[in-house]
Design goal:
With 424 residues, this protein is an alpha+beta fold. It has 2 domains: 3-210 and 334-417, Aminopeptidase (3-Layer(aba) Sandwich); 213-331, Alpha-Beta Plaits. Helices cover 40% and strands 23% of the residues. The longest helix is centred in the last third of the chain and has 22 residues, at 396-417. The structure holds zinc ion (ZN).
Length: 424
């Protein structure tokens, strides 16, 4: 194994031992184990001679000044879901720590200023709003509208949990100016895939093309509740059957819109179904069903959305019910920078001989950086291909390959944007 990979893996295991119990990792943002995680990371930075800095949104930064004040930002998140794994987020932050460590050991200043950032509350595990720190820095977070009403399961308001960590809504708004003042030239993130695609391909490392756009909606089908014995089939207005046909239609739409390669795959999921009145002798009079559609291509996503709307009307008409759509959330696809993608492809090919490409279905902090600066990501294979569970893992050879590919990408990026490189 490459000695730099070995150092990253040793740090990751040390952090896991400190913050994991029998149910998994417990680094939930804004809580005591997360603060312990941050204290550990701050000590790691100090060990290499870097003084950690907190920005107004509680994102933790470490800096090695370069010949140019413009910086390469390497980021991800140390927070986890309750009962999470040892790699989700941490891999990228600790790889960034290794970049700073090597730059310090090299003696002279790097061509570009190097920064590692641990974004606060990427997971949104406690209050339900993810990407809190990175979206505050990107200026896309609206604290009053999005956070003021949020409460955790114990009844604690998010505003109070933030205050416990020294953060106010005004601070969140100030994070944008802090990021702009860093003069960012580019952003890179190493992350585990969290899915089974690279594992199925037997590939240790993947080139991430961007994060998929998302269309997320709730539908309400309304018919007429009736007695399950008394209502003849042809006289029913069964809202659940309409919702069920809609779900099957969405599966067909996503199958039809999917290309054969991983990079052109799309997904559609109906994850919530609520039937009313919800008892065994009642024809369902109303049914709520969710739809979450994702695609890397904006045109394909728009087509999926249009076809899903049409399918809901067909299903409603067949069952003599009405349907209403309510938008829950959406985000456009965030495509990564062509120049950086070139560096990632070269680096992955240098390490493993191939450069498989795939989109990210999950969102990442990197998605928030795309509108602000050239951005790219490297994926390490997940095996088993799951995340947000204590069994989340990546075999050491794949971790080694992904870390090596990422560090090479960093070197190419620094050489490109460093002194004499292209201007902002
Ligand atoms: Zn993550």
């Amino acid at each position: 194994m490459d000695p730099r990979s070995a150092r990253v893996i040793a740090d990751l295991r040390e952090l896991a031992a400190l913050t994991t119990d029998e149910r998994g990792a417990q680094r939930v943002a804004w809580g005591p184990i997360w603060r312990k995680t941050r204290a550990w990371f701050a000590d790691k930075l100090r060990e290499i001679g870097v003084e950690p800095e907190l920005d107004p949104a509680a994102n933790m930064w470490g800096t090695v000044p370069g010949q140019s004040p413009r910086c390469l930002i390497i980021g991800s998140h140390l927070d986890s879901v309750p009962g999470g794994g040892w790699l989700d987020g941490c891999l990228g932050v600790i790889a960034g720590l290794e970049v700073l460590r090597a730059a310090k050991a090299a003696g002279g200043p790097p061509a570009l200023t190097l920064k590692v950032v641990d974004w606060a509350d990427e997971e949104g595990a406690r209050f339900g709003r993810s990407l809190v720190g990175s979206s505050a820095s990107a200026g896309t977070l609206q604290p009053e509208a999005e956070l003021a009403h949020l409460v955790d399961r114990a009844g604690v308001r998010m505003v109070d949990a933030l205050a416990e960590n020294g953060v106010s809504f005004d601070d969140l708004r100030a994070a944008q100016a802090y990021l702009q003042a860093q003069q960012p030239a580019a952003y890179l993130e190493l992350h585990i895939e969290q899915g089974p695609v690279l594992e199925e391909l037997n590939e240790p490392v993947g080139v991430v093309l961007g994060t998929m756009g998302v269309e997320r909606h709730m539908l309400r089908f309304v018919g007429q509740a009736a007695h399950s014995g008394a209502a003849p089939l042809h006289l029913r207005k069964d809202a659940f059957l309409a919702a069920a046909e809609f779900a099957l239609a969405c599966r067909d739409i996503s199958t039809r819109c999917s290309g054969s390669e991983p990079k052109t795959r799309v997904v559609a999921t109906c994850g919530v179904v609520k039937v009313e009145p919800n008892f065994i002798t009642a024809v369902p009079g109303a049914t709520e069903i969710s739809i979450d559609m994702r695609a890397l291509d904006a045109g394909v996503l728009a087509q999926m959305f249009a076809e899903a709307q049409a399918a809901s009307k067909v299903a409603a008409a067949r069952h003599l019910v009405e349907v209403q759509w309510t938008r829950v959330w959406d985000i456009p696809p965030r495509l990564f920078d062509p120049t950086l993608l070139g560096f990632v492809r070269e680096s992955v090919r240098e390490v493993v001989g191939r450069a498989p490409e795939l989109p990210s279905g999950p969102l990442h902090d990197a998605a928030e950086m795309v509108p602000l600066m050239p951005t790219a990501m490297v994926f390490a294979q997940s095996s088993p291909g799951v995340s947000h569970t204590r069994i989340e893992d990546t075999p050491e050879p794949a971790l080694d390959a992904s870390i090596q590919a990422f560090l090479r990408t960093v070197d190419k990026t620094v050489a490109h944007y460093g002194a004499g490189g292209p201007a902002a």
